[in-house]
Design goal:
The chain has 142 residues and is an all-alpha fold. The chain is built from six helices and no strands. The chain has helices at 2-5, 14-44, 47-72, 81-87, 103-110, 126-132. Bound molecules: calcium ion (3 copies). One calcium ion (CA) is lined by residues 97, 99, 101, 106, 112-114, 116-117, 119, 126.
Length: 142
Amino acid sequence: MEESNYQPESYPSGNNKKKIIVIILAVVALLVGVILFVLLQSKMKPTGEQGQENAGAVNKDFIDSIQKVSQTDKDLDGLSDKDELNTGTNPEKADTDGDGLLDKDEVVIYKTNPLKADTYGIGHSDGWGVRRGIILPDGKRK
Ligand SMILES: [Ca+2]
Ligand SMILES: [Ca+2]
Ligand SMILES: [Ca+2]
């Protein structure tokens, strides 16, 4: 009779089994709760959206600065509308004479005529001369 009641200590009794299942369920429930909590948190404040907001702010700054510049330099060639008015170039055309050099590059760098495609009468445009190394900065020529 004693043998039928014998249960090795390492072998969990029915009662112990239940306890273990309850503990496992509690742990699983806790894990599920933690995962749900994390998911909800990330839904409420997604890190991706935060990054997009920052990128949006950077883009906005960039656009603002472009707009600010374009208010004084409509064609964005580096010469302000006022300077273009003084020079006689078209404030809405970055390359007024269409020679392949920006108005500003002609006025500031190469000292070529921004209203004349072929300043030196070489038979080619100023841009061509610059690309060939014939027209050099500061009004120098080869
Ligand atoms: Ca301009
Ligand atoms: Ca030009
Ligand atoms: Ca020119």
